[in-house]
Amino acid sequence: MSECLHLLELPRPEPGPLSETCVECLAAGSHPVQLRLCLVCGHVGCCDSSPLKHATAHFGETGHPVMRSFERDESWRWCFTDGSIV
């Protein structure tokens, strides 16, 4: 893990998920492989192993830097800006 100043800017408490799955995948008729939760706003998007990569697209559209896995029994976080697990 690395030091990430973006963690200091995250809302406390962590935002709740805005959905239980990737709504962009549902709208496109695609299936998310794994889900990611934006730790700034609670957006749920699919990971880069999914065909449409909505979590990364959300970062590109919003600049929200940190997400975490939204999979059961996983709690790791990723900073898109720093390109590392935080």
Task: Jot down its keywords.
86 residues; alpha+beta; five-stranded antiparallel beta sheet; 5 strands; 17% helix; globular
Architecture overview:
- The chain is of the alpha+beta class and 86 residues long.
- It is built from 2 helices and 5 strands; from the N terminus they run H-E-E-H-E-E-E.
- It has a 5-stranded antiparallel sheet.
- Strand 3 (66-69) and strand 4 (77-79) form a beta hairpin.
- 30% of the residues are buried.
- The mean pLDDT is 95.
- As a percent range, the share of helical residues equals 10-25%
Which runs of at least 5 residues are low in confidence (pLDDT < 50)? none
Q: Please report which band the strand proportion falls in: under 5%, 5-15%, 15-25%, 25-35%, 35-45% or over 45%.
A: 15-25%
- N- to C-terminal distance: 5 Å
Shape: globular
Order of helices and strands: HEEHEEE
Total strands: the figure is 5
User: How many helical elements?
Assistant: 2
Q: For the largest beta sheet, what order do the strands appear in spatially?
A: 2-1-3-4-5
Mean pLDDT: 95
Counting helices, strands and paired strands, the structural category is alpha+beta
- Summarize the biggest pleated sheet: 5 strands, antiparallel
Cα radius of gyration in angstroms: 12 Å
Summary?
17% of the residues lie in helices and 19% in strands. The protein has 86 residues and is of the alpha+beta class. The mean pLDDT is 95.
